[in-house]
Write a structure and sequence with these properties.
The chain has 155 residues and is mainly alpha-helical. It has 8 helices and 2 strands. The two termini are 38 Å apart.
Length: 155
């Protein structure tokens, strides 16, 4: 896609629609079930910024006369769309709500069930349930359970 983003034959409006329609769906395929760490969140944000910098190109400083890359804040002003990480978190919360309403099905049992057996040595890996709890805290529903919230879909 680098050649498309650098092409002078396409307008910026068309170049902006490409990440919204194609790249976002490819990058976030299956994100509802991801157990993602902060490092991976940062990597998604960096990827999005690299794509946008490729689309908008460098900016010329009027005082000095030198070219420089656009800062993240400038990119956010030019590209007014929700970032990739926020879209991923909202999809994950919608999917959680959907699964929490599926009582008496296998997927629901996986959501609320506790596995038996011993844990491996070392630090526990980040679980999907932990991600949902942090997403709920970011939204402002920190003390509530995802199953309780699924009953109130307007929240």
């Amino acid at each position: 896609m680098q050649n498309v983003f650098c092409s002078s034959l396409l307008s910026k409006n068309i170049k902006i629609e490409i990440p919204r329609t194609i790249i976002l769906h490819i990058v976030l395929y299956g994100c509802e079930t991801w157990s993602i760490t902060l490092r991976e969140e940062r990597r998604l944000a960096v990827f999005e910024d690299r794509v946008l910098r490729r689309i908008f190109g460098p900016k010329r400083e009027e005082v000095i006369g030198e070219w420089r890359e656009l800062h993240t804040e400038e990119l956010n002003e030019l590209f007014c769309s929700p970032n990739t990480v926020r879209v991923m978190k909202s999809r994950r919360m919608k999917w959680t709500e959907h699964v929490a309403r599926m009582e008496m099905r296998g997927v629901y049992r996986v959501l609320v069930g506790k596995p038996k057996g011993t844990r491996p040595l070392g630090r526990p890996r980040r679980r999907w349930e932990n991600n949902i709890k942090t997403d709920l805290q970011e939204v402002g529903c920190g003390g509530m359970d995802c199953i309780e919230l699924s009953q109130y879909s307007d929240r």
